Structure formats: C-alpha cells, structure tokens
C-alpha cells in the first residue's frame, strides 16, 4: 500500500554489467572513530542514547541538537557506502500534493546551488552511489550516499541547503514545471495541461491496485487525512497554487520537525560541526503541531465500492479487486513486528486461509499484507482479478477461516519456518545495495508514523521473543485480539468500468478546448507568451561553475581496483561442475544448481517455463503441498526457480539452464539438498485441480503485472530483437507464454491428463547430470562440506546424452510494435545491438550514457514534455532508450531521433565530461554485500568474464575523451535507423499514432 514515488528510477534490470568491482577500502581506512559518552555535547548536539543495531552488526548513537531539537541518528559500521538522510514530518492535508511538489522543487534548486535540476546533477555528475527524495505517508525524506566521505559531506551540504535555503529566483518556473502549467505553442495549437508531478501521479494512480489501495484508505479512515494521497491526485494537483506550497514549506521544513540519519564509516564529528555551523545554529526551537489523522476506531465494519476507469475494449469480467482490511490503534512495538510476521504466515500458499480461498473461485490470485507505514497500521486480505459479486463470500470466508485458526491453532512447524525465514532475511540486510539509504528511510517511517527511533535497534530481539512465544499460541492470540474482535475494518471493492477511460480522457480534452474557447485574445496571448518564456528558461544551460562546486573527488583519485574472491572450479568424476567462491561470512551460504535444458524441443518451451513456475508448489511422494511449502520456507530461503541463460561472447551464444538457487545456513546444507532432490524426483503432477489452481494464479499474476508494471513487458518485447538469448527469454516468459497459459487454463478442464504428461516429459529431460553446474558461496569450511555433500543430488541423477535443439526460429515481436494495456500514460522504447549498429561495447560508453540523458534527453522529455522518467542504458549487448509514464509517443521518438544531431553539434569540454566519468565510475564500483559480491563474481566467471575485464572497463571509463563522445555519432545514426521501436500504452493513443507501428496488439 506504500506509494513508491521515486524521483528517478534506477533500472538495474537492463544493466547486465554486474561484476563486483570494489573501490579502495584499504584496511587503514576501516578504523572506526570512538563514539561519545551519553551526555557529551559535540557542536551543539547532545548525546542522548547509545545502542546496538544487531540487524546490521552496527552501533548507533542518537543525538539531539540542543538549540533546535533536531534529531540525528548516527549508525556506525565499516560500510564505505556512506549515507546521509534528512526527513520532515509532513501531513497530507488534502489531495493536492503540496508535499510532493515541494519535494520535487526543493531538490531541483537551492540558494547556494542555483541549478534547475540539482538532483540530476548530483545523480549523474558526482561521485555518488544514490541520490533521491521521496514523498511518503506522513513524511518526506531526502537520502544520498557516496563511497567518499568528502563527497558525502559536500552532498550533505547540498541537501541541507535544498531543504533550508530554497532558491528564490527560480521558484515560480520550478512550480510550473513540477506541479502543473497550461501550454499552447501558438494561437492555433490546442491548449494542454502538463507538469512532472501531474503526469507522474496520472501514471501512479492509473492502475487498479493503486486505486484499490486508495479505496481501502478511504473506507478505513473516512474524513481523516490518513485517507489522502500524500503524493497528490491529478485533478487536485491542478488546483494547487505556488503560495500553498510556500506556506507548507514555511510550516514544516524546520529543524525542530526533522530527523537526520548518518550512516557508515565517517568522522561523524565533522558532520555534526558542519550541520550545526552552516544550518542549525541559525534556528531556534519551534513548536510544530503535526496532524496525524488518527481516528477513533470504527464501531462497525465499513463497505465501499468504487469504479476504476478502463478502455472500452477491456475485458472486465473477473477483473475487480476485493480488499478486506483491518486497522490497528496504539499497538506495541512487539505486536507491530508480530503482525508483520502474522501476515507472512497467512500469506503462505498453503496457509489455511489461502487453501480456502483457492477452492473458492472468487479471484485469480490472493495475498495478505501488513503495512506499518500509517499512524494506524493496516492488515489487508486481497483478491485480485476477482468477481465483485462474490464480495460477501470473500468476507465470510476470511472471517470463518480466522475463527477456525483461533480454535484449532496454526501448524507450529509452518510458523517456525516463517520466523526462521524472517530472522535470516533481516540478518542479511547488508547484502543489498544501498544499505544505509534503505535503512534510513525505514527508520524515518517509524519515526514519522509512530514516534519511534529504536524500532530497528530492537527488531532482532523482538523477532526472537516472538519465536519463543509462538509455541504458546502467540499468533492465535494476535488474531483474536486484532482481527476477530476488531470492528475497525472495511470491505473495499474496486470495479473496472469499460469505456470510462475514454470518457474521462475526452472530458479532459473537452474541458481544455472549452476553456480555450472561452478565453479572450489577451488571455490566449498570455498563455502562448508564458509557454515561450517557460521553454526559454527550460533551455538555458546550467552554469558549469555551479555543477563543478558539487564535486569533492578528482578523477585522478579514483582507484582502479577490483575485489576478488577465491574461486574453485573443478569437476566430479562423473563430469558435474563444482564452482565455488569463498566469502568472509559466518554461517550463511548461497547455492545453486543449473540444469542444461538445451534438449527441450522448441514446441515444448512453454511447458519448461511452466515446470519452473510450478517447481516446489505441488505435492511430492513424501510431502503434502502444505508440508513441502513449510520445508521450503524452513530450508530454502528466498529460493528462486527459473529459466536462466548463461551467455558467452556477448549473448550471441547462450546455454539455457533451469536454475534452482537459495540462501541458507551452511550446517543445514544436506537437508537443503535432500529437499531439492525430493522435489526433483518425486513431484506429483497428476493432481489436476492443484495444477489448474496454480495456472489460474499465474495468469492472474501476469495480468496484474502487465497493468501495474507495463515497463516490464515493454523491455522484454523490445529487447527481444537485441540478441538470441533475449529472443529466447521473451518467447519463454513473455506474452507468448501468457497466451499459452490462457489456452492451458481451458484445456486443463477438458483434458487434465495431457498437461501432466507434458510436465513429466520436461521433468525427465531435467533429471540429468550431463552438463550440470553447481555453485556455492560460503566460508572455507562450508565449501568443503558442499564438495562432499553435492553427491546427494548428483548420485541420484542419470547421465544422459543431450541433443541440443535449434532455437534459431523462435518468433520475435514486430520491429515496430504497439501494445495496448489499460493505461493513461505511455512507455516508449528503442533498442539496438552493437552488431546492428556496427559498434563494440567499451567502458567509455558508460559516462556517455549519463551525459546524453542528463544534457539532452531528460531536459527535452521530462522538463519539456512532462514524461516522468527517462532511461538510457548501454549494456554489454546494446543500447536502450526508454521513457516511463510518458504522455506522448510521437514526440518522444522525435526527441530520440535528434540524438545524432545532438552529438554532432554538442559543445563539450573535458571538464564537463569528467563529471560524468566520476559518476559512471562510482556507479560501476558501488559495493555489494559479501555474499552477493562473491555470487556475482562467480556468475561472471561462468560467463567467461575475468577480473581483468572489469579492470579494463574501469580504466576505459576513466579515459573517456571528448573525441570518444563525438565518435559515437555514426552509432547513434545507426541506432535510430536500425533500432526496434516499441510502445506500451493506451489503445486510443496508439491508434492516434498507428502509422508509427507495423503492428498493434492488445493484451487480453
Ligand atoms: Zn515524484
């Protein structure tokens, strides 16, 4: 239910260059500075409390600034990816999105750094690993990180200047750009309305799951600000005024209403001094009342139905969402943790409530979720792609199921498995990238919504306490208290209405044309003059001196170093490959098995994908579906079963594998392997009812994915042209697979045996140790154990000849393709392989990718045309440009077509280019966790990439010259000429631009 509103989207998905280069984190730098005693005052900050954060093996100190009351939490550990975050409590007083517009405006420009797009300059032209800002329920947060302490100190200065010292001169134009503005190029042109936040929210609220979340809030918190959309609703955003935003800033952006989080290995004293001297010392303490919208719990359960607009051509049968949600008032910290785990227990595919739901035919797929990011947290049961007439049945089924669980109790092994999983996942948070940033934002949410600053200090302790209480029916008691006896609940039904999308779009068009018709000449002239003035302002180039002043690191200082891991590569006597990497970790390990699937005939590939999707979800000889699910959760944490291609020679050659991968505890490795063996050897494919349910859920999941995340299908289809491996991936898991499942859903009713036979055939092809690759990452002893234990699997498998099939004739999407989905915004992409462009990949392209995005595409698309995000990505296979939540199609492709001319005419100095080099270098060097780093190094090794290749890329990034940029002219020309063009968007918009496409298809 959380609104994720990132100012920019980082798409690692398309960046497949995932080595694990490390920057200079030499031993001498890792010494930590001693922490102060409680009571000690440093630069006006009083030490309030010292603590431990077992979660990430760190210490923490809470400071309070004596003069203003500002809070600063310092989390100390050896992480070199240091971060700073400042948050303010910001209530959503209405749906006009003032908070969100203010967030965008603040981070665009400050008094000391008067650029128009400050955040993009930081993101693209400094030695930073993360820079963003978010508007969330009840707070606004500004996180930034860097591998350099000097750079982080500089960025802390920039961020604080942005929030405390707004730009005066640029403000009105920034408001027009970020909130909304009328546009009219000349007197004959139509009047249009655009703006970054306006378009962003059109896209964000344009899918049924967002609309359903909004519906739940309005049902649970009627009349309260908790039901408002903090980020704004387009119709209300266009009523917002600059003065409202200014008032909002004056009220809430004050140190007394702030929390800062500093993270990593830094000299925190320098930061405290800088923050005090330059900013906080100029303020005095102020009482700021922040409304939270807390309401008296409802006495009776509520019900609310809303319509969701979709296109006339949409199939609305079984497409509603039904949510049954419960709100909780004043709950303890321990119960907050407990309710989160409870939702996970209920969300298990084989939990009693899920089993009952699957038998019901109410919806296509179901989920249970818990969200503590509200003053009154919420637990929600959801049915997606549901039949709205079964709402009462849905509610009754859940009520009955809860009563049953309370009287009979949960299966305690299942509960134990979920808790173990929660502990393992939470103990490995530092494995993810941007640990500091992610943790800071979570802390800010708990602070803003619950006034708590030590929730994450206590998290591991709380999970362990709950684990001890579980035997004593802790979760059953929780259910009784918070669900069964809780009338603060609501049933919210969100129903798609076919044709309503066009009706609203036409009404908006009519509104604008009526508005224009009613204007006199003077008013019309003013709008064309304003449009002209805005565009002139938007086209002004930034002062390079200001961009220069953001830097704290020089290119010469960048260390060309790659962290290496000790790798072992050997074969067993029967030819199974054992590949391991040694990581400096305790008991945690990651492991995978890669089965060569090249023998699967082309016509049976979708059954292979289905096999992967069903893996571990059906009963086996020794386990029921439910028992197996518990075992999987207990031993195969975060397990993934999928078809993965390992590519050689830039993806023109690839081997398709069925990959089984998981994380676990090293001492349990034998148990993990035995469980995988049981699934591989003993799965029962003959339960046609279970099969049908799983296929149905998969159809529903894919359908939701296409409407909630259109970018995923756009990239899959567009990139299908780029190389053979991507063609295969698109065919096996994209729309062709979805259509296969739709047909299978029908066939399973008439002829259930046929599908089971196909799956058994696939299983027989998989069960083969020929070409089997096994991988393992763990400590030295664990690796030894792995090499001994792997025979649990290998001894059980036959060794059969593999006859590789030819996948050269797999169908590809049209070169110029439009795909219609229910959407009010568009997603456009062009891509081409280096082969097609007559070019080869080099690290020099990485700074160029950011340069053209920041200096050419983003100003045109985002600030000119109001498209929310632009993506430019050179990966090792080719080039991709894409737009995200874009009001247009034709205009966007025209901007891309201007790339060669832009390169040809660009006036670029090495000084400017150097800033993009810094950023590309930082991006490429950003560290990963110890396990994740070793794992990625192993996968690169498997693809034949060596440490020298990574060093070469780092070196190439550093040595990029202006001439190198100029030399890409021919490549961009070829990109435009030979690329594949795709759009996912509204049918109406696609039809208006149908001359651009060879084919337009609709997802059913
Ligand atoms: Zn935004």
From TrEMBL:
<dbReference type="Pfam" id="PF08367">
    <property type="entry name" value="M16C_assoc"/>
</dbReference>
<dbReference type="Pfam" id="PF00675">
    <property type="entry name" value="Peptidase_M16"/>
</dbReference>
<dbReference type="InterPro" id="IPR007863">
    <property type="entry name" value="Peptidase_M16_C"/>
</dbReference>
<dbReference type="InterPro" id="IPR055130">
    <property type="entry name" value="PreP_C"/>
</dbReference>
<keyword id="KW-0732">Signal</keyword>
<dbReference type="Pfam" id="PF22516">
    <property type="entry name" value="PreP_C"/>
</dbReference>
<dbReference type="GO" id="GO:0046872">
    <property type="term" value="F:metal ion binding"/>
</dbReference>
<feature type="domain" description="Peptidase M16C associated">
    <location>
        <begin position="494"/>
        <end position="744"/>
    </location>
</feature>
<feature type="signal peptide">
    <location>
        <begin position="1"/>
        <end position="24"/>
    </location>
</feature>
<dbReference type="InterPro" id="IPR011249">
    <property type="entry name" value="Metalloenz_LuxS/M16"/>
</dbReference>
<protein>
    <recommendedName>
        <fullName>Peptidase M16C associated domain-containing protein</fullName>
    </recommendedName>
</protein>
<dbReference type="InterPro" id="IPR013578">
    <property type="entry name" value="Peptidase_M16C_assoc"/>
</dbReference>
<dbReference type="Pfam" id="PF05193">
    <property type="entry name" value="Peptidase_M16_C"/>
</dbReference>
<dbReference type="GO" id="GO:0004222">
    <property type="term" value="F:metalloendopeptidase activity"/>
</dbReference>
<dbReference type="InterPro" id="IPR011765">
    <property type="entry name" value="Pept_M16_N"/>
</dbReference>
<dbReference type="GO" id="GO:0016485">
    <property type="term" value="P:protein processing"/>
</dbReference>
């Amino acid at each position: 239910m959380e609104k994720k509103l990132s100012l920019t989207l980082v798409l690692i998905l398309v960046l497949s260059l995932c080595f694990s280069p490390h920057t200079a984190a030499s031993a001498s730098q890792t010494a930590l500075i001693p922490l102060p005693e409680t009571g000690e005052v440093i630069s006006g900050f009083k030490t309030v409390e010292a603590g431990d954060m077992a979660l990430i093996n760190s210490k923490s100190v809470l400071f309070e600034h004596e003069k203003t009351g500002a809070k600063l939490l310092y989390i100390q550990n050896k992480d070199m990816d240091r971060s700073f975050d400042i948050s303010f409590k910001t209530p959503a007083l209405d749906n006009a999105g003032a908070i969100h517009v203010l967030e965008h405006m603040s981070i665009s420009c400050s008094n000391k750094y008067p650029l128009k797009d400050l955040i993009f300059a930081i993101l693209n032209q400094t030695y930073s690993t993360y820079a963003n800002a978010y508007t969330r329920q009840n707070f606004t947060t500004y996180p930034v990180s860097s591998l350099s302490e000097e750079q982080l100190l500089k960025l802390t200065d920039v961020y604080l200047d942005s929030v405390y010292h707004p730009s005066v001169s640029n403000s009105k134009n920034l408001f027009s750009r970020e909130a909304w503005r009328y546009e009219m190029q000349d007197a004959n042109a139509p009047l249009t309305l655009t703006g970054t936040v306006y378009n962003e929210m059109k896209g964000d609220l344009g899918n049924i799951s967002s609309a359903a979340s909004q519906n739940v809030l309005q049902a649970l918190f009627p009349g309260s600000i908790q039901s408002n959309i903090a980020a704004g609703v387009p119709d209300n955003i266009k009523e917002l005024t600059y003065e409202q935003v200014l008032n909002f800033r004056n009220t809430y952006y004050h140190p007394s209403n702030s929390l800062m989080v500093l993270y990593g290995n830094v000299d925190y004293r320098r930061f405290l001094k800088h923050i005090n001297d330059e900013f906080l010392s100029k303020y005095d303490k102020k009482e700021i009342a922040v409304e939270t919208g807390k309401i008296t719990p409802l006495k009776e359960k509520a019900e609310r139905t809303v319509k969701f607009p979709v296109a006339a051509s949409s199939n609305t049968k079984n497409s509603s969402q039904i949510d049954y949600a419960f709100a909780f008032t004043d709950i303890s910290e321990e119960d907050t943790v407990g309710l989160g785990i409870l939702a996970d227990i209920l969300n298990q595919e084989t939990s009693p409530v899920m089993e009952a739901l699957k038998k019901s035919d109410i919806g296509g797929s179901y989920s249970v979720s818990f969200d503590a990011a509200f003053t009154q947290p919420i637990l929600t049961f959801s049915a997606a792609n549901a039949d709205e007439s079964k709402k009462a049945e849905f509610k009754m089924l859940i009520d009955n199921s809860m009563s049953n669980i309370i009287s009979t109790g949960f299966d305690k092994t299942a509960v134990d498995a979920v808790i173990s999983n929660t502990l393992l996942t939470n103990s490995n948070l530092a494995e993810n990238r941007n640990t500091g940033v992610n943790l800071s934002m979570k802390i800010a949410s708990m602070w803003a919504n619950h006034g708590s600053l030590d929730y994450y200090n206590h998290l591991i302790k709380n999970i362990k306490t709950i684990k001890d209480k579980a035997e004593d029916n802790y979760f059953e008691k929780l259910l009784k208290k918070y669900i069964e006896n809780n009338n603060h609940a609501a049933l919210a039904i969100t129903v798609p209405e076919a044709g309503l999308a066009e009706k609203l779009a036409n009404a908006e068009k009519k509104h604008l044309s009526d508005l224009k018709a009613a204007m006199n000449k003077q008013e019309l002239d003013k709008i064309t003059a304003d449009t002209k003035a805005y565009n002139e302002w938007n086209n002004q180039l930034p002062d390079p001196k200001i961009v220069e002043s953001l830097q704290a690191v020089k290119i010469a200082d960048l260390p060309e170093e790659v962290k290496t891991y000790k790798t072992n590569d050997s074969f067993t006597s029967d030819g199974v490959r054992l590949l391991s990497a040694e990581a400096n970790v305790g008991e945690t390990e990651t492991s995978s098995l890669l089965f060569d699937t090249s023998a699967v005939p082309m016509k049976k590939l979708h059954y292979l994908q289905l096999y992967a999707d069903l893996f571990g979800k059906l009963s086996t000889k020794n386990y029921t579906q439910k028992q197996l699910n518990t075992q999987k959760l207990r031993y195969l944490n975060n397990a993934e079963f999928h078809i993965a291609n390992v590519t050689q020679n830039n993806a023109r050659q690839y081997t398709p594998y069925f990959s089984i991968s998981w994380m676990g505890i090293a001492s349990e490795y034998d148990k993990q392997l035995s469980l995988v063996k049981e699934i591989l050897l003993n799965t029962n494919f003959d339960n046609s009812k279970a099969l049908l349910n799983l296929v149905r859920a998969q159809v529903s999941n894919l359908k939701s994915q296409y409407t909630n995340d259109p970018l995923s299908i756009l990239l899959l289809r567009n990139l299908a042209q780029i190389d053979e491996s991507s063609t295969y991936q698109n065919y096996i898991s994209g729309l062709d697979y979805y259509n296969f499942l739709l047909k299978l859903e029908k066939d399973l009713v008439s002829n259930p045996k046929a599908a089971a036979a196909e799956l058994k055939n696939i299983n027989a092809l998989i069960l083969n140790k020929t070409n089997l690759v096994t991988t393992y990452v763990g400590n030295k002893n664990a690796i030894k154990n792995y090499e001994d234990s792997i025979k649990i699997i290998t001894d059980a498998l036959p060794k059969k000849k593999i006859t590789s099939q030819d996948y050269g004739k797999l169908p590809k999407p049209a070169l110029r393709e439009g795909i219609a989905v229910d959407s009010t915004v568009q997603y456009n992409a062009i891509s081409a392989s280096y082969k097609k462009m007559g070019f080869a990949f080099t690290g020099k392209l990485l700074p160029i990718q950011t340069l053209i995005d920041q200096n050419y595409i983003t100003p045109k698309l985002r600030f000119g045309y109001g498209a929310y995000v632009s993506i430019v990505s050179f990966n090792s296979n080719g080039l991709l440009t894409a737009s995200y939540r874009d009001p247009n199609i034709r205009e966007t492709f025209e901007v891309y077509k201007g790339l060669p001319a832009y390169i040809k005419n660009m006036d670029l100095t090495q000084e400017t280019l150097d800033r993009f080099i810094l950023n590309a270098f930082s991006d490429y060097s950003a560290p990963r966790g110890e396990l994740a780093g070793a794992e990625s190094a192993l996968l690169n090794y498997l693809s034949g990439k060596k440490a020298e290749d990574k060093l070469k890329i780092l070196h190439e990034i550093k040595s990029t010259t202006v001439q190198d940029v100029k030399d890409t002219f021919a490549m961009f020309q070829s990109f435009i000429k030979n690329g594949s063009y795709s759009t996912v968007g509204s049918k109406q918009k696609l039809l208006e631009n149908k001359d651009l496409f060879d084919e337009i298809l609709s997802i059913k």
